[in-house]
Amino acid sequence: xxxxxxTLSSRETIDLFDQYVIGNYxxxxxxxxxxxxxxxxxxEGNRYLDFFPGWGCDLLGHCPSKVVEAVxxxxxxxxxxxxxxxxxxxxxxxxxxxxxxFPGKVFFCNSGAEANEGAIKLARSHAAPRTKIIxxxxxxxxRTLGAVSATGQPKYQQGFGPLxxxxxxxxxxxxxxxxxxxxxxxxxxxxxxxxxxxGVNIPPAGYLPKLRRxxxxxxxLLVLDExxxxxxxxxxxxxxxxxxxxPDIMTLAKSIAGGVAGGAIVARKEVAGSLKPGMHASTFxxxxxxxxxxxxxxxxxxxxxxxxxxxxxxxxxREKIEPLRDEVGIIQDVRIRGVMIGIELALPGAxxxxxxxxxxxxxNCTHDTVLRLLPxxxxxxxxxxxxxxxxxxAIRRAAA
Length: 400
Ligand SMILES: Cc1ncc(COP(=O)(O)O)c(C=O)c1O
Hints:
The chain has twelve helices and 15 strands. It is an alpha/beta fold. It has a seven-stranded mixed sheet with strand order 4-10-9-8-7-5-6, with helices on both faces. A four-stranded mixed sheet has the order 1-2-3-13. Strands 11-12-15-14 form a four-stranded antiparallel sheet, covered by helices on one side. Helix 10 (about 305-330) packs parallel to helix 12 and helix 11 packs across helix 12. The N and C termini lie far apart (about 50 Å). Bound molecules: pyridoxal-5'-phosphate (PLP). Pyridoxal-5'-phosphate binds near residues 113, 116, 140, 142 and 228.
Protein backbone atom coordinates (compact mmCIF):
# COMPACT_ATOMS: atom_id res chain seq x y z
CA UNK A 1 0.00 0.00 0.00
CA UNK A 2 1.35 3.42 -0.96
CA UNK A 3 1.51 6.14 1.72
CA UNK A 4 -1.64 8.28 1.92
CA UNK A 5 0.24 11.58 1.85
CA UNK A 6 0.66 13.46 -1.43
CA THR A 7 3.65 12.18 -3.39
CA LEU A 8 2.45 12.00 -6.98
CA SER A 9 2.66 14.50 -9.81
CA SER A 10 -0.60 15.77 -11.30
CA ARG A 11 -0.03 13.48 -14.32
CA GLU A 12 0.41 10.41 -12.12
CA THR A 13 -2.76 11.19 -10.19
CA ILE A 14 -4.68 11.69 -13.44
CA ASP A 15 -3.46 8.24 -14.58
CA LEU A 16 -4.85 6.73 -11.37
CA PHE A 17 -8.20 8.37 -12.06
CA ASP A 18 -8.21 7.08 -15.63
CA GLN A 19 -7.82 3.55 -14.31
CA TYR A 20 -9.86 3.54 -11.12
CA VAL A 21 -12.30 6.45 -10.78
CA ILE A 22 -15.62 6.57 -12.67
CA GLY A 23 -15.44 9.30 -15.27
CA ASN A 24 -18.70 11.13 -14.52
CA TYR A 25 -17.04 14.53 -13.99
CA UNK A 26 -15.28 16.81 -16.44
CA UNK A 27 -12.09 17.62 -14.56
CA UNK A 28 -9.38 20.23 -15.08
CA UNK A 29 -5.98 18.61 -15.77
CA UNK A 30 -4.31 19.40 -12.45
CA UNK A 31 -4.27 17.88 -8.99
CA UNK A 32 -4.83 20.39 -6.19
CA UNK A 33 -2.95 19.70 -2.99
CA UNK A 34 -3.09 22.69 -0.65
CA UNK A 35 -5.21 25.78 -0.12
CA UNK A 36 -5.25 28.84 2.09
CA UNK A 37 -8.04 31.39 1.85
CA UNK A 38 -8.57 32.25 -1.81
CA UNK A 39 -5.26 30.75 -2.94
CA UNK A 40 -4.72 27.13 -3.92
CA UNK A 41 -1.70 25.18 -5.17
CA UNK A 42 -1.35 22.15 -7.45
CA UNK A 43 1.05 19.22 -7.12
CA GLU A 44 3.67 21.08 -9.18
CA GLY A 45 3.55 24.08 -6.85
CA ASN A 46 1.58 26.34 -9.22
CA ARG A 47 -0.54 28.91 -7.40
CA TYR A 48 -4.10 29.69 -8.48
CA LEU A 49 -6.51 32.35 -7.28
CA ASP A 50 -9.87 30.83 -6.54
CA PHE A 51 -13.09 32.75 -7.30
CA PHE A 52 -15.08 29.52 -6.99
CA PRO A 53 -13.65 27.82 -3.91
CA GLY A 54 -15.03 24.36 -3.32
CA TRP A 55 -17.88 24.85 -5.84
CA GLY A 56 -19.58 27.18 -3.37
CA CYS A 57 -18.78 25.11 -0.28
CA ASP A 58 -15.80 27.15 0.94
CA LEU A 59 -17.36 30.51 1.78
CA LEU A 60 -14.44 31.28 4.07
CA GLY A 61 -11.94 30.13 1.45
CA HIS A 62 -9.72 27.11 1.89
CA CYS A 63 -8.89 25.80 5.35
CA PRO A 64 -10.27 28.61 7.57
CA SER A 65 -8.21 28.46 10.74
CA LYS A 66 -11.00 28.12 13.33
CA VAL A 67 -12.70 25.40 11.33
CA VAL A 68 -9.39 23.54 10.95
CA GLU A 69 -8.73 23.81 14.70
CA ALA A 70 -12.23 22.61 15.60
CA VAL A 71 -12.00 19.61 13.28
CA UNK A 72 -8.51 18.71 14.55
CA UNK A 73 -9.71 18.87 18.12
CA UNK A 74 -12.84 16.84 17.39
CA UNK A 75 -11.18 13.99 15.47
CA UNK A 76 -8.98 13.38 18.50
CA UNK A 77 -12.07 12.93 20.69
CA UNK A 78 -14.78 11.26 18.62
CA UNK A 79 -15.08 10.98 14.85
CA UNK A 80 -18.58 9.60 14.59
CA UNK A 81 -21.47 8.99 16.96
CA UNK A 82 -24.63 7.26 15.75
CA UNK A 83 -27.87 9.17 16.00
CA UNK A 84 -29.08 6.72 18.63
CA UNK A 85 -27.08 8.84 21.10
CA UNK A 86 -27.09 12.51 22.05
CA UNK A 87 -24.10 14.72 21.29
CA UNK A 88 -23.58 18.26 22.51
CA UNK A 89 -22.13 19.64 19.28
CA UNK A 90 -25.22 18.63 17.24
CA UNK A 91 -27.54 20.29 19.74
CA UNK A 92 -25.46 23.46 19.81
CA UNK A 93 -25.13 23.64 16.00
CA UNK A 94 -28.90 23.19 15.58
CA UNK A 95 -29.47 25.96 18.12
CA UNK A 96 -27.01 28.25 16.29
CA UNK A 97 -28.80 27.71 12.96
CA UNK A 98 -32.26 28.27 14.46
CA UNK A 99 -31.14 31.42 16.27
CA UNK A 100 -30.03 32.84 12.90
CA UNK A 101 -33.00 31.63 10.80
CA PHE A 102 -36.55 31.10 12.11
CA PRO A 103 -38.17 29.29 15.04
CA GLY A 104 -38.05 25.60 14.25
CA LYS A 105 -35.95 22.46 14.39
CA VAL A 106 -33.12 20.94 12.37
CA PHE A 107 -32.46 17.53 10.81
CA PHE A 108 -28.85 16.98 9.70
CA CYS A 109 -27.68 15.02 6.66
CA ASN A 110 -24.72 15.03 4.28
CA SER A 111 -25.48 16.90 1.06
CA GLY A 112 -27.86 19.19 -0.76
CA ALA A 113 -29.60 16.42 -2.67
CA GLU A 114 -30.08 14.51 0.56
CA ALA A 115 -31.50 17.57 2.29
CA ASN A 116 -33.95 18.10 -0.57
CA GLU A 117 -34.98 14.41 -0.59
CA GLY A 118 -35.73 14.72 3.10
CA ALA A 119 -37.61 17.99 2.59
CA ILE A 120 -39.78 16.34 -0.08
CA LYS A 121 -40.57 13.45 2.28
CA LEU A 122 -41.27 15.85 5.14
CA ALA A 123 -43.56 18.05 3.01
CA ARG A 124 -45.51 15.06 1.72
CA SER A 125 -45.89 13.48 5.14
CA HIS A 126 -46.99 16.80 6.70
CA ALA A 127 -49.46 17.65 3.93
CA ALA A 128 -50.82 14.10 3.39
CA PRO A 129 -52.81 13.03 1.44
CA ARG A 130 -51.60 15.83 -0.86
CA THR A 131 -48.43 14.85 -2.73
CA LYS A 132 -47.85 17.33 -5.55
CA ILE A 133 -44.85 19.68 -5.39
CA ILE A 134 -44.47 22.67 -7.69
CA UNK A 135 -40.91 23.72 -8.52
CA UNK A 136 -39.38 26.16 -11.00
CA UNK A 137 -38.03 25.79 -14.50
CA UNK A 138 -34.23 26.16 -14.55
CA UNK A 139 -34.07 25.10 -10.90
CA UNK A 140 -31.45 22.70 -9.58
CA UNK A 141 -32.12 20.57 -6.52
CA UNK A 142 -29.57 17.76 -6.81
CA ARG A 143 -28.86 14.43 -8.49
CA THR A 144 -30.72 11.80 -6.48
CA LEU A 145 -33.92 10.55 -8.08
CA GLY A 146 -36.36 12.69 -6.08
CA ALA A 147 -34.16 15.79 -6.25
CA VAL A 148 -33.54 15.39 -9.97
CA SER A 149 -37.30 14.94 -10.53
CA ALA A 150 -37.82 18.22 -8.66
CA THR A 151 -35.16 19.89 -10.82
CA GLY A 152 -36.64 21.92 -13.67
CA GLN A 153 -33.97 21.14 -16.26
CA PRO A 154 -34.55 18.09 -18.52
CA LYS A 155 -30.82 17.72 -19.26
CA TYR A 156 -30.23 16.44 -15.73
CA GLN A 157 -33.09 13.92 -16.02
CA GLN A 158 -32.42 12.38 -19.41
CA GLY A 159 -31.72 8.66 -19.30
CA PHE A 160 -32.75 8.15 -15.68
CA GLY A 161 -36.49 7.65 -15.98
CA PRO A 162 -38.99 6.82 -14.80
CA LEU A 163 -38.75 9.90 -12.61
CA UNK A 164 -40.48 10.29 -9.25
CA UNK A 165 -44.05 11.39 -10.05
CA UNK A 166 -45.79 14.40 -8.53
CA UNK A 167 -43.59 17.33 -9.65
CA UNK A 168 -44.73 20.21 -11.83
CA UNK A 169 -42.45 22.99 -13.09
CA UNK A 170 -43.43 26.60 -13.70
CA UNK A 171 -41.38 29.65 -14.84
CA UNK A 172 -39.24 31.06 -12.03
CA UNK A 173 -40.38 34.44 -10.71
CA UNK A 174 -43.85 34.15 -12.28
CA UNK A 175 -46.33 34.34 -9.41
CA UNK A 176 -49.40 33.95 -11.68
CA UNK A 177 -48.04 30.74 -13.18
CA UNK A 178 -47.43 29.44 -9.65
CA UNK A 179 -50.95 30.39 -8.57
CA UNK A 180 -52.41 28.56 -11.58
CA UNK A 181 -50.31 25.45 -10.90
CA UNK A 182 -51.43 25.00 -7.27
CA UNK A 183 -54.43 22.71 -6.91
CA UNK A 184 -56.13 20.55 -4.27
CA UNK A 185 -53.39 17.94 -4.52
CA UNK A 186 -50.52 20.38 -3.95
CA UNK A 187 -48.48 19.76 -0.83
CA UNK A 188 -45.71 22.31 -1.36
CA UNK A 189 -43.96 24.84 -3.51
CA UNK A 190 -40.18 24.48 -3.62
CA UNK A 191 -37.81 27.09 -5.08
CA UNK A 192 -34.31 28.46 -4.69
CA UNK A 193 -34.53 32.11 -3.50
CA UNK A 194 -31.89 32.82 -6.17
CA UNK A 195 -31.30 30.11 -8.77
CA UNK A 196 -27.63 29.12 -8.79
CA UNK A 197 -26.95 26.34 -11.30
CA UNK A 198 -29.72 27.73 -13.54
CA GLY A 199 -27.73 30.94 -14.15
CA VAL A 200 -27.68 33.06 -10.96
CA ASN A 201 -31.28 34.12 -11.58
CA ILE A 202 -32.62 36.68 -9.13
CA PRO A 203 -36.44 36.77 -9.09
CA PRO A 204 -38.31 40.08 -9.49
CA ALA A 205 -38.44 42.17 -6.28
CA GLY A 206 -41.40 41.09 -4.16
CA TYR A 207 -41.62 37.57 -5.65
CA LEU A 208 -40.77 35.74 -2.42
CA PRO A 209 -43.22 37.74 -0.25
CA LYS A 210 -45.93 37.11 -2.88
CA LEU A 211 -45.04 33.42 -2.87
CA ARG A 212 -45.27 33.37 0.93
CA ARG A 213 -48.74 34.96 0.80
CA UNK A 214 -49.89 32.62 -1.95
CA UNK A 215 -48.77 29.55 0.01
CA UNK A 216 -50.58 30.82 3.12
CA UNK A 217 -53.78 31.55 1.20
CA UNK A 218 -53.78 28.16 -0.51
CA UNK A 219 -52.56 26.20 2.53
CA UNK A 220 -49.42 24.76 0.94
CA LEU A 221 -45.92 24.60 2.37
CA LEU A 222 -43.18 26.93 1.17
CA VAL A 223 -39.88 25.06 0.84
CA LEU A 224 -36.77 27.13 0.08
CA ASP A 225 -33.66 25.41 -1.23
CA GLU A 226 -30.88 27.55 0.26
CA UNK A 227 -28.16 25.01 -0.51
CA UNK A 228 -26.26 27.53 -2.63
CA UNK A 229 -27.53 30.81 -1.13
CA UNK A 230 -26.84 29.86 2.51
CA UNK A 231 -25.13 30.35 4.93
CA UNK A 232 -24.01 33.94 4.48
CA UNK A 233 -23.46 33.95 0.71
CA UNK A 234 -25.84 36.84 -0.03
CA UNK A 235 -24.79 39.05 2.88
CA UNK A 236 -27.58 37.63 5.05
CA UNK A 237 -27.38 34.28 6.74
CA UNK A 238 -30.12 33.11 4.37
CA UNK A 239 -31.32 34.71 1.13
CA UNK A 240 -34.98 34.75 2.19
CA UNK A 241 -33.98 37.29 4.86
CA UNK A 242 -33.26 39.77 2.04
CA UNK A 243 -37.01 39.71 1.37
CA UNK A 244 -38.18 39.65 4.99
CA UNK A 245 -40.02 36.33 4.81
CA UNK A 246 -39.72 32.92 6.44
CA PRO A 247 -40.21 29.57 4.73
CA ASP A 248 -41.89 26.52 6.29
CA ILE A 249 -38.94 24.33 5.33
CA MET A 250 -35.42 25.31 4.27
CA THR A 251 -32.63 23.09 3.00
CA LEU A 252 -28.90 23.73 3.45
CA ALA A 253 -25.61 22.10 2.43
CA LYS A 254 -22.56 23.44 0.54
CA SER A 255 -21.23 26.12 2.88
CA ILE A 256 -22.98 24.96 6.01
CA ALA A 257 -19.68 24.40 7.82
CA GLY A 258 -16.80 26.14 6.06
CA GLY A 259 -16.14 23.33 3.60
CA VAL A 260 -16.83 20.29 5.77
CA ALA A 261 -19.44 18.06 4.08
CA GLY A 262 -22.91 18.33 5.52
CA GLY A 263 -26.51 19.26 4.90
CA ALA A 264 -29.60 20.14 6.87
CA ILE A 265 -33.34 20.54 6.77
CA VAL A 266 -34.72 23.36 8.89
CA ALA A 267 -38.47 23.22 9.51
CA ARG A 268 -41.00 25.25 11.45
CA LYS A 269 -41.87 23.42 14.68
CA GLU A 270 -45.34 22.15 13.61
CA VAL A 271 -43.92 20.88 10.33
CA ALA A 272 -40.86 19.32 11.97
CA GLY A 273 -43.18 17.41 14.30
CA SER A 274 -44.43 15.35 11.35
CA LEU A 275 -41.21 13.38 11.31
CA LYS A 276 -41.58 10.72 14.00
CA PRO A 277 -38.90 8.24 15.13
CA GLY A 278 -38.12 5.78 12.36
CA MET A 279 -39.59 7.83 9.49
CA HIS A 280 -36.32 9.29 8.22
CA ALA A 281 -32.62 8.97 9.01
CA SER A 282 -29.05 9.54 7.85
CA THR A 283 -26.21 7.52 9.36
CA PHE A 284 -23.55 10.23 9.19
CA UNK A 285 -26.01 13.13 9.58
CA UNK A 286 -25.02 15.71 12.19
CA UNK A 287 -21.76 13.97 13.05
CA UNK A 288 -19.61 15.80 15.59
CA UNK A 289 -16.97 16.84 13.03
CA UNK A 290 -19.58 18.64 10.92
CA UNK A 291 -21.16 20.28 13.94
CA UNK A 292 -17.91 21.50 15.49
CA UNK A 293 -16.87 22.85 12.06
CA UNK A 294 -20.25 24.54 11.63
CA UNK A 295 -20.00 26.27 15.00
CA UNK A 296 -16.48 27.49 14.19
CA UNK A 297 -17.72 28.69 10.79
CA UNK A 298 -20.52 30.77 12.32
CA UNK A 299 -18.19 32.15 14.99
CA UNK A 300 -15.66 33.27 12.36
CA UNK A 301 -18.30 35.03 10.25
CA UNK A 302 -19.64 36.91 13.26
CA UNK A 303 -16.28 37.79 14.80
CA UNK A 304 -14.98 39.14 11.49
CA UNK A 305 -18.25 40.84 10.36
CA UNK A 306 -18.15 38.85 7.15
CA UNK A 307 -21.84 39.20 6.26
CA UNK A 308 -21.19 42.90 5.70
CA UNK A 309 -17.93 42.11 3.94
CA UNK A 310 -19.81 39.84 1.48
CA UNK A 311 -21.93 42.83 0.42
CA UNK A 312 -18.84 45.05 0.04
CA UNK A 313 -17.12 42.41 -2.13
CA UNK A 314 -20.21 42.08 -4.33
CA UNK A 315 -20.30 45.85 -4.86
CA UNK A 316 -16.56 45.97 -5.60
CA UNK A 317 -17.14 43.39 -8.35
CA ARG A 318 -20.10 45.40 -9.67
CA GLU A 319 -17.94 48.54 -9.89
CA LYS A 320 -15.45 46.62 -11.99
CA ILE A 321 -17.87 44.70 -14.21
CA GLU A 322 -20.26 47.53 -15.15
CA PRO A 323 -17.70 49.76 -16.95
CA LEU A 324 -16.38 46.71 -18.81
CA ARG A 325 -19.94 45.83 -19.80
CA ASP A 326 -20.34 49.23 -21.44
CA GLU A 327 -17.06 48.70 -23.30
CA VAL A 328 -17.03 45.13 -24.60
CA GLY A 329 -20.61 44.52 -25.71
CA ILE A 330 -20.73 40.79 -24.85
CA ILE A 331 -21.95 41.21 -21.26
CA GLN A 332 -25.73 41.09 -21.33
CA ASP A 333 -26.53 41.19 -17.65
CA VAL A 334 -24.81 41.34 -14.27
CA ARG A 335 -26.56 39.71 -11.31
CA ILE A 336 -25.04 40.11 -7.87
CA ARG A 337 -26.17 39.39 -4.32
CA GLY A 338 -23.23 39.51 -1.93
CA VAL A 339 -20.67 36.96 -3.10
CA MET A 340 -23.06 35.27 -5.52
CA ILE A 341 -22.19 36.75 -8.89
CA GLY A 342 -23.49 35.97 -12.36
CA ILE A 343 -22.22 37.60 -15.55
CA GLU A 344 -24.49 36.71 -18.44
CA LEU A 345 -22.74 36.71 -21.80
CA ALA A 346 -23.96 36.88 -25.35
CA LEU A 347 -21.81 33.81 -26.11
CA PRO A 348 -20.80 30.54 -24.40
CA GLY A 349 -18.48 31.13 -21.43
CA ALA A 350 -16.38 27.94 -21.61
CA UNK A 351 -13.48 29.58 -23.48
CA UNK A 352 -13.28 32.33 -20.83
CA UNK A 353 -13.13 29.74 -18.03
CA UNK A 354 -10.31 27.99 -19.91
CA UNK A 355 -8.47 31.26 -20.52
CA UNK A 356 -8.71 32.12 -16.80
CA UNK A 357 -7.45 28.68 -15.83
CA UNK A 358 -4.42 29.07 -18.10
CA UNK A 359 -3.74 32.30 -16.24
CA UNK A 360 -4.29 30.59 -12.89
CA UNK A 361 -7.71 31.91 -11.93
CA UNK A 362 -10.51 29.48 -11.10
CA UNK A 363 -14.05 30.52 -12.10
CA ASN A 364 -17.14 28.68 -13.33
CA CYS A 365 -19.59 28.90 -16.18
CA THR A 366 -23.16 27.66 -15.74
CA HIS A 367 -26.15 27.45 -18.06
CA ASP A 368 -23.73 27.72 -20.99
CA THR A 369 -23.49 31.52 -21.05
CA VAL A 370 -23.34 32.65 -17.40
CA LEU A 371 -19.96 33.17 -15.76
CA ARG A 372 -20.51 32.32 -12.12
CA LEU A 373 -18.25 33.57 -9.35
CA LEU A 374 -18.79 32.36 -5.80
CA PRO A 375 -15.75 33.93 -4.11
CA UNK A 376 -14.94 33.63 -0.44
CA UNK A 377 -16.54 36.27 1.77
CA UNK A 378 -13.12 37.03 3.27
CA UNK A 379 -11.11 37.47 0.06
CA UNK A 380 -8.73 40.43 0.53
CA UNK A 381 -9.09 43.36 -1.88
CA UNK A 382 -5.62 42.75 -3.40
CA UNK A 383 -6.52 39.18 -4.38
CA UNK A 384 -9.89 40.27 -5.68
CA UNK A 385 -8.21 42.92 -7.84
CA UNK A 386 -5.52 40.50 -9.00
CA UNK A 387 -8.11 37.90 -10.04
CA UNK A 388 -10.33 40.50 -11.66
CA UNK A 389 -7.43 41.64 -13.93
CA UNK A 390 -7.15 38.07 -15.21
CA UNK A 391 -10.90 37.74 -15.74
CA UNK A 392 -11.16 41.15 -17.41
CA UNK A 393 -8.42 40.27 -19.90
CA ALA A 394 -10.09 36.92 -20.65
CA ILE A 395 -13.45 38.64 -21.29
CA ARG A 396 -11.74 41.23 -23.52
CA ARG A 397 -10.05 38.46 -25.54
CA ALA A 398 -13.38 36.64 -25.96
CA ALA A 399 -15.02 39.88 -27.12
CA ALA A 400 -12.27 40.73 -29.62
C1 LIG B 1 -29.62 24.93 -5.00
C2 LIG B 1 -28.98 23.58 -4.94
N1 LIG B 1 -29.66 22.57 -4.40
C3 LIG B 1 -29.12 21.34 -4.29
C4 LIG B 1 -27.85 21.08 -4.76
C5 LIG B 1 -27.27 19.70 -4.64
O1 LIG B 1 -26.31 19.69 -3.65
P1 LIG B 1 -25.31 18.43 -3.49
O2 LIG B 1 -24.40 18.44 -4.67
O3 LIG B 1 -24.62 18.69 -2.18
O4 LIG B 1 -26.17 17.22 -3.45
C6 LIG B 1 -27.10 22.12 -5.33
C7 LIG B 1 -25.74 21.88 -5.86
O5 LIG B 1 -25.20 22.59 -6.64
C8 LIG B 1 -27.68 23.40 -5.43
O6 LIG B 1 -27.02 24.43 -5.97
